[in-house]
Design goal:
1 helix; 58% strand; mainly beta; globular; Porin
Length: 272
């Protein structure tokens, strides 16, 4: 075998190796994308989720930008159980939600949630978790928070089959302390979700982040419908999920957002 033939063979082997590595990396990204569709997956991730909504307030003149910082941290308790921690830290900019308000910017109320979840799905493939959630009155401006302490249960159940993920998250929060001149809180949240992930690590997802306010006089439901497209990418040594989509308010209180909004999210991923 002459030198030229050896070089050709070496080049072909290098190309084959590079192709196999690329295929393996794409498979890893697709698996991460599938894990991201599972809110209680054993995957450390830190999403930065920007939401925009309009037509707030009785005069429908208000606008709101909300940046939710949502670190998700799984903790291994033993061979069979995980504790999944997710804390939502909202940073808000609102303007003209009532006459003469102007604009307000600051931190909103922080809501930590915890799910005790088996590491292995059931024989039927069900993935589930239950635990407590809390409301902390951390808002830096009155209009940005409820000024109440709250707590209640939360649960999630889902299945993953092929590239599909479907399930629902439910929970309730009651207020038990806080400022007396602010309304008490009794909120039920129900969030069904559906997602389809492809081998290219692209995911199309839809969910309802519906909330029922038991303390409201009327128009108790808030029901935004979210449709989003996401992809896992790698920049340097860091893995990211990039997501964007639209929201339509199917139902809302008189002072709530109306019509269309949007959501854009980047999440840092830390697979083990």
């Amino acid at each position: 075998m002459n030198l030229k033939t050896i070089r050709v063979v070496a080049a072909l082997l290098a190309m084959s190796l590079a192709a196999n590595v690329a295929i393996a990396q794409e498979a890893d990204k697709a698996e991460l994308a599938k894990q991201l569709s599972n809110p209680i997956a054993s995957l450390i991730n830190v999403p930065f989720q920007l939401n925009y909504d309009s037509n707030l307030g009785l005069a429908d003149d208000g606008d709101q930008f909300k940046l939710n910082i949502q670190p998700v941290i799984p903790i291994s308790l033993n061979e069979k159980w995980n504790l999944i921690s997710r804390t939502i830290i909202p940073v808000l900019y609102v303007q003209d939600t009532f006459p003469g308000q102007g604009s307000e910017f600051g931190l909103g109320d922080i809501t930590p949630a915890f799910w005790f979840s088996p590491k292995a799905p059931t024989k039927g493939g069900l993935i589930w978790g239950v635990g407590p959630q809390f409301l902390l009155p951390t808002a830096t401006e009155d209009v940005l928070g409820a000024e109440k302490w709250g707590a209640g249960p939360t649960a999630i159940a889902l299945k993953q089959s092929g590239g599909w993920t479907y399930g629902a998250l439910v929970g309730h929060i009651w207020s038990f302390a806080g400022t007396d001149n602010r309304s008490d809180i009794s909120l039920t949240n129900f969030q069904p979700f559906l997602a389809r992930t492809w081998p290219s690590s692209i995911t199309l997802s839809a969910n309802l982040e519906s909330t029922y306010n038991w303390e409201a006089d009327d128009d108790e439901w808030s029901i935004p419908v979210n449709v989003q497209l996401s992809k896992v990418v790698k920049a340097g040594n860091q893995l990211w999920s990039i997501k964007g989509g639209i929201r339509y308010w199917a139902e809302n209180p008189d002072t709530g957002a109306e019509d269309w909004g949007f959501r854009f999210e980047v999440a840092m991923l830390f697979p083990r």
